[in-house]
């Protein structure tokens, strides 16, 4: 029966009575709404008073008692309000009161409490996994209990663990308190107003995890942090109902973790590359983040800026730049197999290396050094380099993947995507001829430095280089090796155990300067004997002797002691000159050797450094055997007997002092220009210090002393700073 049927059945008098009753009840409804407003105002004042009484909170153990006290007081106000006012208007009023109760200073308290609780829960899952499994079984069943990084003493919350959950009983009480507080928050229906505090607490947990993973490049950290983050998100979903939010908390936390961890690894990428291969795990984590956020170009641009600021400057040596470039190639190919990032980062490195004079020499030195990483690439000859310096793989498979969109603006990605490290280094220059020429010079120097005719190492190096550059490019090296083998047969035909010679083809070896002096008759007779045998074996060829590369092993007896010396023919000629007279001036010595006085002075200085002669007057030298031992200055008694050059012979004391004064200039040169060869250092000293009379032999001996004292380092034929 509806209202119309009631009106038809009831008489008019009864209907009028019902209407009066309804009108009489309207004032009582308005009075009820007014009482709700008054009660809401009273509760609002109570909540404001509670909120104003909140102390200034820091991340300390006191946050637990402060939050529980505040939450209990708000619960009392809510129960009082709910018992008194029960209507739709009361529900709206309580929503306004709840917003007031959990914003402002109270929001900070909620954030601090939730952060501290989550930190301790993670700590408990690490220290007492069975206890966590019992208390949080519904969450742990969905996701493995994470191993936490919060036990590290480096984090500010470490002291909190010991005070709040130092044993299993305290841990159990904390878990129960956490469960009870979460239930109270759910009953108060305030989660929508505390959402910002919850997200901030989760962000702080993520920040702590990312901070704890800083500089930990030896192990992968991302998966472990993801497990802990998912555990937290699912715990809050189960205890606070955050799964009802528009964006799921687990998705928000996962995105925040990847974003912040990616930014940290991007900032550390330069150091990660320096430590490679020990940092390969960090590269794997960063690759996951880059693929997730498609941030390839941003990462490459940031790394390029760091490389330009921290690596490409005069203070970095060429060998260090090359080592960093090689590590960069290997790391960025792990990050991006398409080599697009590598092309973005490597462009300024390649341009800077082209501007350095010793780049080719350093690359060749690393290629032939068996301790170098490049030696493995050289031994692997599957990748060939054509005449234009471009690399191609003879065994390359037909598998093909498209380049990323970032590669469209990067020139050379396709050409160098499949090239190995050595091929990329060679492609720094437009042609491979510069490397072939440097390698020819290296082989020649090595063959000339040998005491005998053993060229097995050089033969192996040439064969490996032929796999890279082809046989035609290394024809000169083949001729050099053939000259060594032919010289060995010629020396065997001479049958003179005292004298041996390396006969080289003038057109295929680097030109050697001819020393203008006259050799002693005894040495001349030995040379004539060798020349006659050679011309008998090779009638169409003639010999021209080059003394600058020759060495003579001899023993010098003086004052009852014997010195084993390795000297040049010009230096030995000085001893022959002193056999006829114990004292000679530089002018007389030059006339005897038929050379310039400067050349004669440099030769006699060698014997002065060994204590064989001494300077009795200005530019006058006397053999020391005619004087007592007290008058001698023995500068050479500790000379290395196996020395093959004057670099192992100490310089005179006065010259050594002068060279020590020049050492600052040498350090400045090596700092600004990188590794330098001996002749370059000598010429620059002459330019910076006008009137300096340091000979190249004295400088060689001084630099050798600096290397022995571990103040300089020698790489091949160049000197560099330690």
Widest β-sheet, arrangement of strands: 5-7-6
Which geometry do the CA atoms define?
elongated
Beginning-to-end CA distance, first to last residue = 105 Å
What proportion of the residues is helical, as a percent range? 55-70%
Structure description:
The structure is a single chain. By secondary structure, this protein is mainly α. Strands 5-7-6 form a three-stranded antiparallel β-sheet. A hairpin with a 5-residue loop joins strand 1 and strand 2. Helix 10 (195-212) packs parallel to helix 12, helix 11 packs antiparallel against helix 12 and helix 14 (280-293) packs across helix 16 (318-335). The protein is elongated.
Write the layout of secondary structure elements.
Layout: H1 3-9, H2 12-52, H3 62-84, H4 88-101, H5 105-127, H6 129-135, H7 137-142, H8 158-164, H9 168-188, H10 195-212, H11 222-240, H12 249-267, H13 269-274, H14 280-293, H15 296-310, H16 318-335, H17 340-354, H18 359-368, H19 373-379, E1 383-385, E2 391-393, H20 413-416, H21 421-426, H22 433-449, H23 456-469, H24 475-494, H25 521-537, E3 552-558, E4 561-567, H26 569-580, E5 583-585, H27 586-593, H28 597-609, E6 613-617, E7 620-623, H29 653-673, E8 676-677, H30 678-688, H31 696-708, E9 712-715, E10 718-721
Helix pairs in contact: 2-3, 2-4, 3-5, 3-9, 5-6, 5-9, 5-10, 10-11, 10-12, 11-12, 12-14, 14-16, 15-17, 16-17, 18-19, 18-22, 22-24, 24-25, 26-28, 27-28, 29-30
